[in-house]
Predict the structure.
Amino acid sequence: MQFTYFMPTKVIMGAGCFQKNKELLLSLGRKALIVTGHSSAKVSGALGDITGALSELNIDYMVFDRVMNNPTIACVYEGAALAKDFAAEMIISAGGGSPMDAAKVIALLACERIPPENLFSGKYGKKALPLVLLPTTAGTGSEVTPYAVLTHEKISSKASVSSPLLFPRYAFLDPKYTASLSEEVTINTAIDAMSHAIEGFLCQRATHMSDQLALNSMAEIAGCFAALERHKIGLDERAHLLYGSMLAGMVIAQTGTTAVHSLGYSLTYFKQVDHGRANGLLLGAYLRFVEKAFPERIALMLKSMGYERLSELCSLFDSLLGGKEFITEAEVVRYAEIAAKAKNLTNSLPVPTMADLQGFLRESLVIKD
Ligand code: NAP
Ligand code: FE
């Protein structure tokens, strides 16, 4: 057995965990830039908890609340300019993957002049501002990953800034911050988390350690599917989803994602399909493809979720996701070409060919002439 495992983020989970542990921030500095989306930090109650704690601790702060869904490169440079002007010593972010990812790149750009053409190079200096993340969705696991995903116009897709410097210093997981989520975002983000666990498990880079995290994550998330289907999600299920999503983040921090994310980025970039939904639409076709080559791996995965056959899991995805989007043949060809160039595609087990990628899209969406 051989593996490396590195995850330097201190994770604190539980009701009121941020307020109970706020003194930890004192070791990070006296000035904080708070990075959020338009409303999630406010409606979830996280922003009030953060500003309240910072005031009590005499930490000066500014709020940058201009992060949009699927953040752009311009947005992170705007946030970094503010961080530098304010001489921020730490970045705190509350929100879903979009604000948390923007915060990570802002923390990097605040310490280093990186021109946009080198932003995805993976070659950075030795420093980023310390990051404190409070997820308000249970989906991306960004609070424990070294990645930040941005919209990348030049490649007509999304791309990751990836560096161990992006691991947050602290992640505070309080399920109450996810209670204000709409049912739609709750489902899409839960499926994104499930997709991370599944892709990490069916991955060339999977290790014994990441497999255990992935199987546990799948069990946690699948345990909430029945409640999601009945439209009855309580705080207890939200805690399990948040925990499962964090475990899945720990998985992809080791393995990366695979073909599902590579293809899903096009559905988001060109068709504005939500990130988690895009992955969910594609998962069934990808799983049927993997099952042909690695049936024992699929069986293990299904067992951890409490299913016997893959068709049961696929029907559940169909029921949670509802009607499917349309796609043209020209779009099928274009999206497959883009996915074929994505770095994460080669992580897939087995690696799909161009024809396979096109097949996943045809199987997953409704073909329109
Ligand atoms: P998101 O884009 O952060 O948020 C989706 C929507 O939900 C937004 O409208 C947001 O409002 C709202 N929202 C979030 N929390 C809420 C709450 N508690 N109550 C009410 N509304 C709330 O969604 P996400 O799925 O969490 O993140 C997706 C992004 O993460 C994508 O860019 C994806 O590529 C990336 N991602 C990153 C990683 C990683 O490892 N870094 C992994 C997977 C995905 P606001 O507009 O107010 O924020
Ligand atoms: Fe994702």
Summary: The longest strand covers residues 90-95.
